[in-house]
Specification:
Oligomer: heterodimer
Largest sheet of chain B: 5 strands, mixed, barrel
Radius of gyration of chain A: 19 Å
Order of helices and strands of chain B: EHEHEHEHEHEEH
CATH architecture of the largest domain in chain A: 2-Layer Sandwich
Distance between the termini of chain B: 30 Å
Number of domains of chain B: 1
Largest sheet of chain A: 4 strands, mixed
CATH topology of the largest domain in chain A: 60s Ribosomal Protein L30, Chain: A
Helix content of chain A: 25-40%
Number of strands of chain A: 10
Number of helices of chain B: 6
CATH topology of chain B: fumarase
CATH superfamily of chain B: Fe-S hydro-lyase, tartrate dehydratase beta-type, catalytic domain
CATH architecture of chain B: Alpha-Beta Barrel
Largest interface: A-B, 54 and 51 residues
Strand order of the largest sheet of chain B: 2-3-4-5-7
Helix content of chain B: 10-25%
Structural class of chain A: alpha/beta
Order of helices and strands of chain A: EHHHEEHEEHEHEHHEEE
Distance between the termini of chain A: 15 Å
CATH class of the largest domain in chain A: Alpha Beta
Radius of gyration of chain B: 16 Å
Chain lengths: 280, 188
């Protein structure tokens, strides 16, 4: 059986936290450039110029793209034939987050308890860790730090089957219009359709780890992604101060659901759609 | 876009009243950062009848929680946070003499009413342009609540800090006019 030591996991997670914070994915950078070319609002053009320049500075100087370096979402796919040695997997991941956020001069934005005390844990742990057991002997890690300016504007709607495609569009647009200029547009929109309430929300998060240049493999969903993007870019919200570049992409993930249900979850991500991926 | 206006701190009501929604500005001088936890602490202190640790008269508040500075730098990445979370505390804070607010996103009617009453201007910095904005910050000194870490109240010495007037002291909003201008959505 293949073995992996927890120290290797910690080291990789630490590096990935820094990478994700400093380097905007290429597809998002291209999306911003494309948006700048087509943006009609003069003030929107100025905003996009600043956002593009910001991404370039962050990359060339190893600096966080945004001061909100996020709550750290971690997607793990653990091969069932992989033996993790030397300690506990979750502890190893959290140690990696603490190390990465400390060494990388990233902001520690996590409070240990949400309502009564709200004391900062001072090392950005714990991360939000999702673990899936898969065939094989590899460990697949995706780190997706999530800022809360956009997270606070995300939402979920429990539709019924009769609502259909139009209902889904309306649910998504309601959330987008309510979010307005607040989640740092141009945004990337992750949509989860189906499952249960929690599964839909998780799918909407996972959707944001896919490239904005890749459409859903099922043609009906690919078309819906394109239609939603077009609608969102007609809202006038634009790059924060009004304009035509409101979203860079819409990514939908779907899953089986109950005969009585049609859950729709929307995770809004700011233009700093950050993620880092490694297979160990 | 219109010509860029250079403004200096301290920022008085007279300075504020000259600005109109849509104006592009470069701010030089000193601005003071405060966000969620500091706003809560300050309004609670006022409710207890205590004096605030900072004199806010003719100051500009910047809604910010920066990343830690790398060695040799004055500050880390330092873009604006969502202003709306401070709305519940803002009318009380404006009573303290703040004349400019820098953040991002919409404000409530209560805040806009208080802005009109006190002659306050609301500026937007570009959300997520944090590494770029850091270039205009020359000095960062914590003034109060150091235990809040990135949420501490701090004085930032800035040179040509880029911002745009989004709501002026008469309540005109660039958000509203410019969104309307580019909206072609029908049926939603």
């Amino acid at each position: 059986m293949r073995e992996i030591d927890v120290k290797t996991i910690t080291e990789n997670v630490a590096e990935m936290c820094k990478e994700a914070a400093y380097y905007l994915p290429e597809d998002v950078y291209r999306g911003l450039k494309k948006g700048r070319e087509s943006e009609k609002s003069p003030v929107g053009q100025v905003v996009l110029d600043q956002i593009i320049k910001n991404a370039e500075i962050a990359k060339s100087e190893d600096r966080p793209i945004c001061q909100d370096t996020g709550m750290t979402i971690v997607f793990l796919k653990v091969g069932q034939d992989l033996h993790i040695t030397g300690g506990n997997l979750n502890d190893a991941v959290n140690e990696g987050i603490a190390k990465g956020y400390t060494e990388g001069y990233l902001r520690k934005s996590v409070v240990g308890e949400p309502l009564f005390n709200r004391v900062n844990t001072k090392n950005n742990t714990p991360g939000v860790i999702y673990t899936e057991i898969v065939p094989g002997d590899k460990l697949d890690i995706t780190i997706a730090p999530k800022g809360f300016g956009s997270e606070n504007k995300s939402g979920i709607k429990m539709l019924v089957p009769a609502d259909g495609v139009e209902g889904v569009k309306k649910a998504v647009m309601d959330i987008i219009l309510h979010a307005s200029m607040n989640p740092c547009p141009p945004i990337v929109v992750g949509v989860g359709i189906g499952g249960t309430m929690d599964r839909a929300a998780l799918m909407s998060k996972k959707a944001l780890t896919r490239s904005i240049e890749e459409r859903n493999p099922m043609p009906e969903y690919a078309k819906l992604e394109e239609e939603l993007l077009e609608l969102i870019n007609k809202t006038g919200i634009g790059p924060q101060l009004g304009g035509t570049t409101t979203a860079l992409g819409v990514n939908i993930e779907w899953g089986p659901t109950h005969i009585a249900g049609l859950p729709v979850a929307v995770t809004i991500c700011c233009h700093a759609m950050r993620h880092s991926h490694r297979e160990l | 876009m219109a010509e860029t206006i250079r403004i200096k701190t301290p920022f008085t009501e007279e300075d504020s009243r000259k600005l109109k929604a849509g104006d592009s500005v470069l701010i030089t001088g000193e601005i003071i950062s405060a966000r969620d936890a500091a706003h809560k602490a300050m309004t609670e202190a006022l409710a207890r009848g205590e004096k605030l640790p900072v004199d806010w008269n003719n100051q500009m508040v910047y809604y910010l929680g920066p990343t830690p500075a790398k060695p040799g730098d004055p500050i880390g990445s330092c873009g604006p946070t969502t202003s709306g979370r401070m709305d519940a505390y803002t009318p009380t804070m404006l009573d303290q003499g703040i004349k400019g607010m820098i953040g991002k996103g919409s404000r409530t009617k209560e805040v806009v009413d208080a802005m009109k009453k006190h002659g306050v201007t609301y500026f937007a910095a570009v959300g997520g342009a944090a590494a770029l904005i850091a270039k205009s910050v020359k000095k960062y000194e914590v003034l109060a609540y150091p235990e809040l870490g990135p949420e501490a109240v701090a004085r930032l010495t800035v040179e040509d800090f880029p911002a745009i007037v989004v709501i002026d002291c008469e309540g005109n909003s660039l958000y509203e006019t410019n969104q309307e201008k580019y909206r072609t959505l029908e049926g939603y």
